């Protein structure tokens, strides 16, 4: 048998072996879905509504930029801050950021005006180190009071300005106990 | 491969730093959000009180732009000389022209009894000045307005925001003024003090 014949026979045997191997596909087999479901992330959000200024007489101030304070004026800024916390292990802290008391403008008023530290209240006061849970989601009321002291004398602080623009709120998630820190 | 102890130490330090940084970075990766309160800027009012003479073109703010107190020369009625036993009248209208956002009531008062100077002529001693509060400048020249006012009275009045008030003055020359003082002059100053109520 020449070499060509031997090669053809070897090729034929190889093909037969392949056919034999194909036969294993016919045996029983089964596949199952793991049914792991979907992983859904939670939420952390903070939305501040439009705040409202009122003076000591309880009169609403439509535009604080057009209002001019005088000694004895006490203005209060109230604002609803909507907190959303979703997640089985979600915890967070809500804090006031920026300048409050003795902030920008205090010098311009010659010390005759003060802005209180902003307070956050949801039933009771929300302290800076309070740990909020998803059940604490909802409206938190923020309040800041500006006082132009009656003790101002002469023409102290006429036409002065006091910026409260730096005040804000921060909602920061706290690491779950089992956090992987990655 | 052999490495020196220095190299090993450096490697350990680098590994420790990397681990430390990674641990710190992990805490920043948690969710957080921040919003502004948009509280805006609070602006103080001015404290403006206008002074207007009976000659209404003569007007000024009580405090000048440089912060000093203004002086306003009042027009007398009738104009000209005053004869013994007669009087002349003047008035000034105060306007509470503040731009305060809320209530802003002021109290205006004569700060002290009128000052009288006559350069030594002695005329001032024969002048009697009465001051009363009124509603309008045109009341000032009415003698009846001063009938019940004592000479040393220092009237006061409250003026609401945007409103005005008037101080009227009567300067009477004593009927017994010596003729030798004819032609003499005297200046009368009336300090006005305004305070926030």
TrEMBL record, chain B:
Domain of life: Bacteria
Protein name per the record: SipW-cognate class signal peptide
Organism in which the protein naturally occurs: Arthrobacter wenxiniae
């Amino acid at each position: 048998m020449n070499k060509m014949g031997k090669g053809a026979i070897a090729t034929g045997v190889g093909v037969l072996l392949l056919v034999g191997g194909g036969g294993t596909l016919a045996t029983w087999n089964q596949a199952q879905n793991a049914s792991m479901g979907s992983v859904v992330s939670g939420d952390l959000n903070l939305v501040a509504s439009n705040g409202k200024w009122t003076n000591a007489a309880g009169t609403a101030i439509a535009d604080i930029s057009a209002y001019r304070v005088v000694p004895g004026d006490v203005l209060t800024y109230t604002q609803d801050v909507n907190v959303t916390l979703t997640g089985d292990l979600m915890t967070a802290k809500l804090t006031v950021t920026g300048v409050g008391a003795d902030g920008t403008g205090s010098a311009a008023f010659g010390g005759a005006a003060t802005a209180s530290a902003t307070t956050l209240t949801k039933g009771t006061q929300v302290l800076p180190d309070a740990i909020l849970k998803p059940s604490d989601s909802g409206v938190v009321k923020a309040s800041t009071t500006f006082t132009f002291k009656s003790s101002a004398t002469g023409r102290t602080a006429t036409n002065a300005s006091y910026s409260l623009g730096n005040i804000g709120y921060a909602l920061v998630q706290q690491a779950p106990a089992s956090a992987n820190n990655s | 491969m052999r490495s020196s102890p220095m190299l090993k130490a450096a490697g350990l330090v680098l590994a420790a730093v990397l681990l430390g940084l990674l641990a710190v970075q992990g805490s920043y990766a948690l969710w957080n959000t921040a919003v502004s309160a948009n509280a805006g800027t609070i602006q103080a009012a001015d404290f403006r009180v206008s002074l207007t003479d009976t000659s209404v073109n003569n007007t000024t703010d009580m405090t000048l732009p440089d912060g000093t107190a203004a002086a306003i020369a009042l027009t007398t009625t009738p104009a000209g000389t005053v004869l013994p036993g007669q009087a002349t009248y003047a008035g000034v209208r105060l306007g509470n022209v503040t731009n305060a956002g809320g209530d802003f009531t002021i109290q205006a008062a004569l700060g002290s009894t009128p000052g009288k100077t006559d350069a030594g002529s002695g005329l001032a001693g024969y002048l009697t000045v009465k001051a009363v509060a009124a509603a309008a400048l045109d009341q000032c020249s009415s003698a009846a307005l001063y009938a019940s006012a004592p000479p040393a009275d220092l009237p006061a009045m409250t003026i609401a925001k945007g409103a005005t008030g008037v101080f009227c003055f009567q300067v009477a020359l004593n009927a017994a003024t010596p003729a030798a003082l004819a032609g003499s002059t005297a200046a009368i100053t009336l300090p006005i003090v305004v305070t926030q109520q």
